[in-house]
Amino acid sequence: MRSLILDTLEYTYDLITKPKVTLDKIVQERRLREGVLIWIFTLILPCVSAIVQLSGAHIGAAFGALLFGCVCFILQIIFIHGISCLLGGSGTIKALAAGLGFSNIPLNFATLAESLLFILPSILVHFISIASLLWTLVLSVLAVRSAYGMSTARSTLAVCMPMIIVVCVIIILVIWFAFSVLTLVKGF
To answer: What is the per-residue pLDDT across 149-188, written as a single tens digit (0 to 9) for each?
Structure first.
């Protein structure tokens, strides 16, 4: 267990200093255990932060958020794998999961910045959060590129397509709900 944690910390440092080379190595070696460890830490950190900062936060809500995060991560891997295969890439889910687990590291900086909201100016916290999100997106594209041997454009499409689909589904549901409410109102 100690070597797992030390390897994870070493890969984390290398990912910050030389991301492309490190992600290539993580994907080639299929460092799934370390990637899952990073991903779990990235998922638990905001839950613990919310419980500590919000006195009314309930442990059950944190557990629900963890469960929801697990489902979202699994769906993300499945969708990106499917889209990458449709776009002509060839790789494994295990390599993708390892790369995506490590690509979530920048989100921890956003969580830490939001934990210091009472000290830092809110504009700085928002800037750190947006920069962390963009950095995570870039690392995810690099992970897909390394795992499937695709071009950067196809990797970007593979990473963004699930988000685009979710946004379109939400828009369709909102429009459907609005029309449903309007028909009910007209009926009265």
So the answer is: 999 999 999 999 988 999 999 999 999 999 888 888 776 5
Cα 177 to Cα 166, 173, 184: the distances in Å are 16, 6, 11
Task: Give the pLDDT score at 57.
Answer: 61
pTM reported for the whole predicted model: 0.81
Q: Which residues contact 64 (CB under 8 A, 6 or more apart)?
A: none
CA neighbor of 104 nearest in space, from 137, 131, 79, 82: 137
Q: What is the DSSP letter of 18?
A: S
The domain segmentation of the chain, as residue ranges, is 2-107+135-187
Q: Report the distance separating Cα 138 and Cα 131, nearest Å.
A: 11
